[in-house]
Design brief:
The protein contains eight helices and 28 strands. By secondary structure, it is of the alpha/beta class. The strands form nine sheets. Strands 21, 22, 23, 26, 27 and 28 form a six-stranded parallel β-sheet that branches. The protein starts with a helix and ends in a 16-residue tail after the last strand. The chain binds zinc ion.
Length: 470
């Protein structure tokens, strides 16, 4: 029994020694090893160039003491530059330094980007011509020169590698098509020629995106009868190799050749007719054997008999617009010619005669129309291309501008009469123009005594045109 107790005692002593010894070994191991630095995440990482390096975390422990706050972290990472970099985590303990590190590779892992100009179409009969491309890259510049283009019939293949070997590829599908019409450009699309002259085509050119020699393929139809006044349409048509067809038309106006008559005076009366003044003017003209021109507005059908009388007695009655209201007359091209034609219709209905003669309210030089910029320029062009004839004045009696005595009107008119000039005299026959009426006979007599004749404006009278100011 004592023996057993003695044995047990020895076993306990041995066990005790073993425990003491292993505790000693363990403690000295821990002491010699020092604190342990642990990093979160991988110890080796690759980061794309220019990307931001982000610390994933770390901690330090010595036995069960947390020493994380004492870790000093430093690195020399330049994320704009390719290379290998270390991040160091250091801690000092018992005058000894303990270190951990993380290896960071800064690499270019991104492909360049090739961007093609969207236009990939080519003429069916031609080769595709480069419309442009660009290359951008996260790291390399000037990759555009390094692009290799493989040119096949239906697709072009663009490839490029950056300095780190990242490859990019882009395919352009080439579309062979032509949807664009040829373009015919006419010289003088509105062309005026004099009656009894010879018409020759003023010329044209043709351009097309795909076909080169279309000019000879233009088909011209239509004829001009230069023996007859009027408007003629000549049509030019052409079709390109892909079947795109285009058409242009030229308007040719056969017009009267203006005839200058020397020693002629063209008296013109605007803004009538009026029931009190116009018939008396007609009386004087008749008595003196003179003729004149009336540019009228619409003053109602009850004055149509005056229009008829004037025409019957050999005068010209022409248009001065229906309303004479600048804001409606010059509101648009459409409004203007509606007003002009409206009066021509009134004249035709009253007298059975029609002409295309008119006078612009305010003259073609007026500036009141500037509320509609360039309207006068457009109207003059349209009048010319549609066979209208407008007449501005060369002598202003000033009977609408402040001269309200018979003497001043007489002087204003007679002063400027010239044998070799185009004498177109502006006067008015509205209801209050008594001074004009009273000056008329003396003006005509002065003219006759000096060898002038008083003629109505006709379609062969040369036009007098003011400078266009709008
Ligand atoms: Zn007027």
């Amino acid at each position: 029994m004592l023996d057993v107790i003695k044995k047990l005692k020895n076993i306990f002593i041995i066990l005790f020694l073993i425990i003491i010894l292993s505790t000693y070994i363990l403690l000295s191991f821990l002491y010699l090893r020092g604190p342990i630095i642990t990093l979160k995440g991988k110890l080796e990482k690759t980061i794309n160039v220019n990307d931001y390096y982000k610390e994933e975390g770390y901690k330090a422990k010595y036995i069960y003491y947390d020493l994380t706050n004492e870790i000093i972290v430093n690195n020399n990472i330049n994320s704009n530059k390719l290379g290998d970099y270390n991040v160091y985590y250091k801690i000092k303990y018992n005058n000894k330094e303990y270190t951990q590190k993380r290896l960071i590779h800064i690499k270019d892992i991104e492909k360049p980007i090739i961007t093609l100009n969207e236009n990939s179409s080519a003429c069916p009969n031609k080769e595709f011509v480069e419309t442009g491309y660009e290359v951008s890259d996260n790291y390399d510049s000037d990759l555009k020169d390094k692009v290799i283009v493989e040119k096949n019939k239906n697709e072009w293949i663009y490839t490029v590698s950056d300095s780190s070997g990242n490859k990019a590829k882009k395919i352009r599908k080439i579309i062979y098509e032509d949807n664009i019409k040829p373009k015919i450009t006419l010289n003088s699309p509105n062309y005026n020629i004099y009656i009894n002259s010879t018409y020759t085509d003023p010329g044209y050119s043709v351009s097309d995106n795909c076909s080169d020699d279309l000019k000879n393929k233009v088909k011209i139809t239509g004829t001009v009868d230069t023996k007859k006044l009027g408007k003629y349409i000549i049509t030019y048509e052409v079709t390109d190799e892909s079947g795109n067809k285009t058409k242009e038309t030229r308007t040719v106006n056969v017009v009267n050749r203006p005839i200058f008559v020397s020693k002629a005076i063209y008296l013109t009366f605007d803004d009538g007719p009026s029931a009190n003044i116009t018939p008396k003017i007609l009386d004087i003209l008749k008595e003196e054997g003179a003729h004149a021109t009336f540019f009228i507005n619409d003053h109602g059908r009850n004055l149509d008999y005056i229009i008829k009388r004037a025409v019957d007695e050999g005068h010209t009655v022409a248009s001065h617009t229906l309303s004479h209201n600048f804001y409606s007359v010059y509101a648009s091209e459409n409004a203007f010619f509606k007003e002009i034609d409206g009066v021509h219709n009134i004249i035709y209905n009253a007298s059975g005669k029609r002409n295309k003669i008119f006078r612009f309210p305010g003259g073609s030089s007026n500036t009141i129309s500037r509320f509609n910029p360039k309207i006068m320029t457009r109207l003059v062009k349209m009048a010319d291309s549609n066979g209208y004839l407008f007449y501005d004045w060369t002598i202003d009696s000033n009977d609408a501008g402040g001269s309200n005595t018979k003497e001043s009107i007489y002087n204003n008119v007679t002063k400027y009469m010239g044998y070799q000039s185009l004498n177109i005299v502006l006067m008015h026959d509205s209801a209050n123009k008594y001074a004009t009426l009273n000056a008329l006979r003396d003006i005509i007599r002065y003219g006759k005594q000096n060898g002038f004749t008083f003629l109505p404006i006709t379609e062969t009278t040369p036009q007098s045109r003011h400078h266009i100011n709008n």
